[in-house]
# Entry
Amino acid sequence: MAERIDQNLRGKWSPDEGALPLHALKWLGGRIGLRPQRTPAAPGSTLEVPASALSEAAAEALGAIVGVGHVRLDRASRLGHAGGLSYVDLVRHRAGGELTAPDAVVLPASPDQVVSVLALCAEHDVAVVPFGGGTSVVGGVAALRGDKAAVVALDLGRLDRLVSVDPVSRVAVLQAGVTAPEAERLLEPHGLTVGHVPQSYERATIGGFAATRSAGQASSGYGRFEDMVEGVRVATPAGEWVLGAAPASAAGPDLKQLVVGSEGAFGVITEVSLRVRPRPAVERYEGFVVDGWETGQAVVRALAQARVLADVTRLSDEDETEVSLALAGGVKSAAVRAYLKARGVRRPCLLVLGWHGGSSREVLARRAASLRLVRGAVRLGTAMGEAWRHGRFNGPRQRDVLLDVGVCVETLETATHWARLSELRTAVRGALGDALGKAVVMCHVSHAYETGASLYFTVLTPRDAHDPVGQWKVAKAAASEAIAGLGTISHHHAVGVDHAPYLEAEIGGLGVEVLAAVKRALDPTGVLNPGKLIPSERFRG
Ligand SMILES: Cc1cc2nc3c(=O)[nH]c(=O)nc-3n(C[C@H](O)[C@H](O)[C@H](O)COP(=O)(O)OP(=O)(O)OC[C@H]3O[C@@H](n4cnc5c(N)ncnc54)[C@H](O)[C@@H]3O)c2cc1C
# Structure
């Protein structure tokens, strides 16, 4: 667990050294006019961390609950919990902007300890930022104190157990701090899987997924994370709350769904009861290319509406397909381009489909049902599908090396109904292009529903060396304005700080009031995650 507290990993995703290949640098030079600049990944000693504002009395009392060694006031621990992993967070850790560190890091070892910590923090006027994997990209773990005297990061890494497995009902209870790979490792002997595979898989936690309504790459087959949540155990300053007595219930509104997505503002999720599935014996991934975005989205819509989506269904637009081929480089991508040209595909859009099942027969039957609707596509076979699977977690590493050479590289996401999907995509691309000038704006659909789909954008542009944070903030605001009214401000990254100003436009003033009222009931003095989810001015503790 201790290795998770590593400030060096706040400036990049992984400690592995890597460099951008020459062909990719050349391509970026031509496409966005990049002139490479060096950015240190972890300047370490140059970052300023002010003296801790946590009172001695509070630190001692916290130590009495969690153990003295588990209240950390040292610089490395505090820097290791200063913010999440958005582009702006990474830039700040590379000394490109102001960084706010918590006054201390507190590591409870049990749900009961979390309840006691919250009561104590309320008594000592200390804000609490629940911290899972710290992979938030919307400011969800920013160390904001609001109107409190101090702020601590509540690292849930010691809540790392598989509590129980009910193989008959296919329900497993996991503690909140269990990371996704660890959850799979713990469930493997039972022949079970969670099936939640976001790109942040390697570092994010079960509690974080529940707190943000996360969606993984296989959401078409396994569902979004909230679909998997059977129950939650939550610590709040008002006491413990346990929800989820049955798989379905008409006992009033579904209160567990009020906790799921509450981003640490209502309580700290300490255990999650999850619907789990048998581990697939067979997984088959294939690549296809369709001609143009409109054709591609019509195919995905047809699959969704006929309810024959593959477990992984991912459509890249022309720009994303071009970048994938350009950055991959080599003989193979040149051969693919030549082949597509020969087949008359003018605007290649890559479609990756992946089916899971208990046997080859089952997988092939599901594949056949899907492929009946994938008309007019060029098949690139399992090699292309497997290449995608092999590189499915490479995004954050590629981001590290792009950052190293001075690229502003960030993502944002939304969702809307099919009838508006293209309008929304055009609006966001236009807003980002206008704000950033020479930029590549890529887009893909990776979560599809009968009535609509998500859109996920990745932006590459030369970084403004003088004000990298301001450069992205302007672009992000422009994109958020474009989204408002056409789609949701977040399909799966959550609200955090970044999207809080846009929440009211989506859920209405009454909606914000309802959230504030729930917070008042569970967290009357407002110690939990100030400034996240509910804008501070709308909540008075
Ligand atoms: C490179 C990269 C790729 C990503 N890809 C995806 C993706 O494919 N799909 C996706 O959905 N998201 C993705 N994300 C976003 C992020 O990984 C998710 O939001 C994830 O669910 C956060 O989990 P975490 O454990 O890191 O939570 P954290 O970042 O630690 O916390 C997220 C929020 O939840 C709160 N919180 C954390 N744990 C608890 C708890 N136990 N109780 C109450 N509140 C808590 C925090 O205070 C914070 O507000 C990505 C992020 C990165 C950096």
Observations:
- The CA atoms of residues 430 and 479 lie 9 Å apart.
- Residues 84-85, 129-137, 140-141, 156, 176, 198-200, 204-205, 207-209, 211-212, 214-215, 263-264, 268-269, 395-396, 492-494, 496, 529, 532 surround flavin-adenine dinucleotide (CB under 6 Å).
- The mean pLDDT is 94.
- The two ends are 33 Å apart (CA to CA).
